[in-house]
Amino acid sequence: MWKLRDIFYDAEDVIDDFKCEAVRKQVVNHPNITFKDVIGRDVDKENIIDLLMKPSEGLDVPVIPMIWICVSEEFDLTRLLKLMIHSINKGEQCDDSTVEALQTCLRSLLNDKKFLLVLDDVWNENQARWIELRDLLRSMGGLSQSKIIVTTRSLKVASIMSSIRPYELKVLPHEDCLILFTKWAFNDGDDRQYPNLMRIGEEIVKKCKGVPLVVRTLGSLLFMKTDESDRISVRDNEIWKLEHAENEILPVLKLSYNHLPSHLQRCFAVMSLYKKDSIYYSDKVIQFWMENGLLEHSKQKQEWVDVGGRYLNELLSRCVTKRV
């Protein structure tokens, strides 16, 4: 659900300005800028490129910080400030700072500039916490011309945080869902070789109710499985009879987990010890698996790190983890 529908074009303009800095730096080393390097409306792209190709004029292009953070369930002011600072300057050290120190650091980074703040996947229903963050941002200056976009699956969250009517994303059309499912469930062209599997797949897609993550998860679950019974078991599974609350994706993810081989189930289960939506390096994850004896000995005499890499790639291919 994208909030602040009325400022959509303003937000796009802010993103355009932010992108200019990266493209302008490219001019120094790469004299040729392609059309796809610039984000924005097509009618403006050529003018932007022409401007950036003239250093004397391009220096006047404003650069506006875009701050994107995944909020999730933990709407803690100190944590959010640290994420915002890290989003602007990844080299900034602020692990042990107080709220006051973090506010000072953020103010110096923004320097009274307008900015675009994206608060992604918000679940906080405590209005006081949102007001605390909003008032803190107001005290730093620049907020009057800045934009804040919030994404959430909760109408209650939207009503708490919005200053205007929220914009609700529509579900993905059935035809697009079917294309997405086919992409993940078959190799290129294989769908034409298995019309019966496609027929069952279409029935599965209808049950996904237009939610892309559900479609992709089930498609990856059935990838390269050419036995009709595999698809029938998914189509007729009991999960479709459950009353789903806000987290309607969870039963489908549980189904995907149940179909993992036992060695992957163990490795995936221990990843629940990590914080949600945090980024971890693959070598650290593999090292953790190794230290806890979760990797099975390979008959091909592979190094343990290679076995762990293979496990991680399998989890990625099944859409239960994501590469960033």
From TrEMBL:
Repeat as UniProt keyword: yes
Name recorded for this polypeptide: Disease resistance protein RGA1
InterPro entries: Apaf_helical, NB-ARC, P-loop_NTPase, WH-like_DNA-bd_sf, WHD_DRP
The UniProt record lists the keyword Repeat: yes
Gene3D superfamilies reported in the protein's UniProt record: Helical domain of apoptotic protease-activating factors (1.10.8.430), P-loop containing nucleotide triphosphate hydrolases (3.40.50.300), Winged helix-like DNA-binding domain superfamily/Winged helix DNA-binding domain (1.10.10.10)
Gene this protein is translated from: LOC107894333
Domain Disease resistance protein winged helix: 273-320
Organism this protein belongs to: Gossypium hirsutum
Regions annotated as coiled coil: none
